[in-house]
From TrEMBL:
Listed PANTHER family: UDP-N-ACETYLGLUCOSAMINE 2-EPIMERASE
Keywords: Isomerase
Keyword match Transferase: no
Pfam families listed in its UniProt record: Epimerase_2
EC number of the protein: 5.1.3.14
Domain UDP-N-acetylglucosamine 2-epimerase positions: 23-370
InterPro entries cross-referenced by the UniProt entry: UDP_GlcNAc_Epimerase_2_dom (IPR003331), WecB-like (IPR029767)
Gene coding for it: wecB
Similarity-based family: Belongs to the UDP-N-acetylglucosamine 2-epimerase family.
GO molecular function, one term: UDP-N-acetylglucosamine 2-epimerase activity
The protein, known as: UDP-N-acetylglucosamine 2-epimerase (non-hydrolyzing)
Amino acid sequence: MIKIMTVFGTRPEAIKMCPVISELKKEVQMKTIVSVTAQHRQMLDQVLTAFNIIPDYDLNIMKNKQSLVDITCNVINHLDDVVKKEKPDLILVHGDTTTTMASGIVAFYNKVALGHIEAGLRTNDKYAPFPEEMNRRITGTLADLHFCPTEQAKQNLLSEGKSSKNIFVTGNTVIDALQQTIKAPFSHPVLDDIFQMEKKTQKKQRIVLLTTHRRENLGSNMVNIFSAVKQITEHLDNLHVIFPVHLNPAIQNLSNEMLSGNRSIHLIPPLDVISFHHLESRADLILTDSGGVQEEAPSFNVPVLVLRDRTERPEGVTSGALKLVGTDQNVILTTALDLLTNKEHYNKMANSKNPYGDGHASERIVKVIKNHFQL
């Protein structure tokens, strides 16, 4: 029996790891051990519930005002005990979080093989995004198996001297997750109100979904983003901005200060993964600094304006599904207004092909693992 341990700790990781866990659990020759660090407690639990995943180990490391050093030290200290007890044959981590990087170090210290899902993403700027760029680079150095979402990610690893024998292009598991979340009928009070208004006025109500949370956008960048969003609502009638506000107190306080009281802007609590995916699918335009949203939205044919100066997901920009707008207030405003008023420009982005997969990435990852252990 081959022991495969998955380790993750945040909401985005969980969304992309749960389909892999479900696929692993189908294998009778593998024992799947699920370990979570709970780097993000509440938002992680929402995803685990949605995918019906019960962890075997919950390190529960999250604490108030935790620093990157706190997270790193706590993951290493707590996970090391679990790895020594279970002695897995392979540890699987995902992406670019501090949990991922620290788990890779624990795997290395215990001489356990490491598999890196969503490997090879690069901006080539160590501080953008921070700390994610260096987290994935460190993890990539330690990894034995690299599961790349795209051919470009594979080429990034090859250029760094990684062996082609250990690199596998699988697609992104977030597309697998969409197969599970976009199923049942869905409703939300804000959406219900918007659709009722549409019926009453006989006018199409358009929805802009806003998400922003990155460390590098806190402060003046976020002020610029919120100012642009307010201006967009002033230029267009029948427009609704829905903003699931991140739990970070700095974001909560600034959004309340700048956006509350505007009838066109709906500040709502963070959504569970099923609700969020449905909301993405109903949006007309998305403004985001999230990595996962850049991958998900093209599956719904929704144009995305990326609130960052650079992205480690250039495939979406190349395909035309994403557009980098940074955090300049005027650029955000003019680009959003152009898409919302110019059908030709809008349709060109909306009809772009999603370059991030076909919904079978988890199957490919498990197949590679089976071949690796000659099962």
